[in-house]
Specification:
Length: 479
């Protein structure tokens, strides 16, 4: 087989077979590429290995998701119990700013590498070393520039948010490590391996952050608190790089490699940056418009949303490569089943949590300290919104896998615009509750727009006859 080189690249999304909708009513289902691709992905058949592999990957991702969610929850608990409310809010604000910046600066290079590495499997991953270099150089360069800019503007950021300037400078220094670590650990999934992601990003990093932050918080040594939070990214970067080095054949860098990679990744980089902003912007807006105390209340009340987000992330990490392969080959039945199976998994895993949280929030929030039970209304808004989002399934992942990256980008921009507009009106008056309503409006926009697009274009729905496959015992036994 020919190696994956700039002269023989992985097909870009525009090179994928066109999924032309059928005109037969009532489902508007796309025409299938071949009779073989039309076979149902039955868990009991030889095609059931796909669902079995998805279940194994999903369970591995879920393990990391649950551990990460617990560690993040405990981190918030330690900070709120050990620090004054205003200082806790400042810590949550500066880490949110850092995660937003790192999400922008990673340029979604990791997911671009996942795509290229997965497509290079028939060629024994030849040429991949050049693609990894082409991904890391821009990420590192932009991160260093951002570090310098944030150091220069640290006092202005501190005045606007109530965060100590020293904290801003410490986390600005960590940005290159965070962005490169994210790109490399994500790239390991291109080999079909969930282990590095689960162990390094799902288990080690959040647990190490919890341990280091707790040690400093309980000793009242808060000056280096952000540094303790960022330090675990160093071993994640080193170990993921070593993992890739053992598996990627070394080849000279070939001219045109970067162009091939970024032709696919650039639109996703913009979408990934917008997604990173959307996930953390609410905390920063609360800090700017209502102060760090309200930011602390809001963060504590919304900490449970990470449960649903990480559960979806764990399943999406396992399902995304399979969705790409199914949609690239024009295999709509397989894509439909993957979508409906993962949606039912999400609902079954998260809905009991959201219902319980909405009912018990007035008592649960008291564990964060005095006054935090003010966030009970925020918890109800959060729970209702996440139940709707879970019922939409991996809708954006499916839309992106189908090649509609521009539509995904437009949806995210619309969601951010809605969030900011609602926040500007409600946060100055209602504080944390106003931010929760703004976030809810953005989440609903982000999920309902792609859901409508998938239904109209491909006849894909989050629930259907394939949903029962998620409950088939063979699916889980094969895991």
């Amino acid at each position: 087989m020919a190696p994956l080189t700039p002269g023989n690249p992985a097909p870009a999304p525009s090179d994928r077979p066109h999924l032309a909708p059928d005109t037969n009513p009532p489902h508007n289902q796309p025409h299938l590429a071949s009779a073989a691709s039309a076979r149902r992905l039955d868990p009991t058949s030889k095609h059931g290995g796909a669902l079995g592999g998805l279940a194994r990957g999903g369970l591995a991702g879920l393990l990391g998701a649950v551990t990460g969610a617990v560690a993040q929850f405990l981190l918030v608990l330690v900070v709120t119990r050990a620090l004054p409310t205003a200082q806790a809010g400042a810590f949550f604000t500066v880490t949110a700013l850092c995660l937003m910046a790192a999400g922008i600066l990673r340029l979604d290079a990791g997911n671009g590498l996942v795509y290229v590495i997965a497509r290079s499997h028939p060629h024994d991953h030849l040429g991949i070393s050049g693609y990894i270099r082409a991904a890391l150089i821009p990420v590192a360069a932009f991160s260093l520039l951002a570090t310098a800019a944030l150091h220069l503007q640290s006092h202005h950021i501190a005045a606007a948010t109530g965060v100590p300037a020293t904290w801003v400078q410490l986390l600005a220094t960590a940005l290159p490590l965070m962005a490169c670590a994210d790109a490399l650990v994500t790239a390991t999934r291109g080999f079909g391996a969930m282990g590095p992601t689960v162990i390094l990003d799902g288990l080690f990093r959040p647990l190490a952050q919890l341990a280091l932050v707790a040690c400093l918080a309980v000793t009242a040594d808060t000056l280096l608190l952000p540094l303790a939070w960022a330090l675990p990214y160093v071993p994640v970067l080193v170990l993921s790089a070593l993992w890739l080095r053992r598996r990627v054949p070394r080849m000279p860098y070939l001219a045109g490699t970067g162009r091939d990679l970024w032709r696919y990744t650039a639109p996703r980089a913009v979408a990934g940056a917008i997604q990173a902003v959307f996930q953390r912007l609410d905390i920063v807006i609360v800090a700017v418009l209502a102060g760090p105390v309200e930011a602390a209340f809001y963060t504590a009340a919304t900490r449970f949303k990470v449960v649903g987000q990480l559960a979806g992330q764990g399943i999406a990490q396992a399902a995304a490569p399979r969705l790409v392969r199914a949609l690239t080959c024009g295999d709509l039945p397989a894509a439909r089943e993957l979508y409906q199976v993962t949606t039912l998994w999400l609902v079954a895993l998260t809905w009991p949590i959201w219902v319980a949280y909405a009912l018990l929030s007035p008592w649960l929030l008291k564990i964060f300290g005095a006054g935090y039970d003010r966030g009970a209304q925020v918890a109800v808004v959060l729970a209702a919104t996440m139940m709707v989002a879970s019922a939409c399934g991996l809708v954006d992942a499916v839309l992106t896998a189908a090649g509609h990256t521009a539509a995904s980008l437009a949806n995210m921009m619309a969601a951010i615009a809605v969030t900011v507009a609602v926040d500007l009106v409600l946060v100055p008056v209602h504080g944390a509750l106003g931010a929760a309503l703004g976030w809810s409006a953005g989440v609903l926009t982000k999920n309902l727009l792609p859901l409508l697009r998938l239904h109209r274009t491909y006849g894909l729905r989050p629930f259907g006859r394939h949903s029962l496959s998620a409950l088939h015992p063979h699916t889980w036994r094969s895991a």
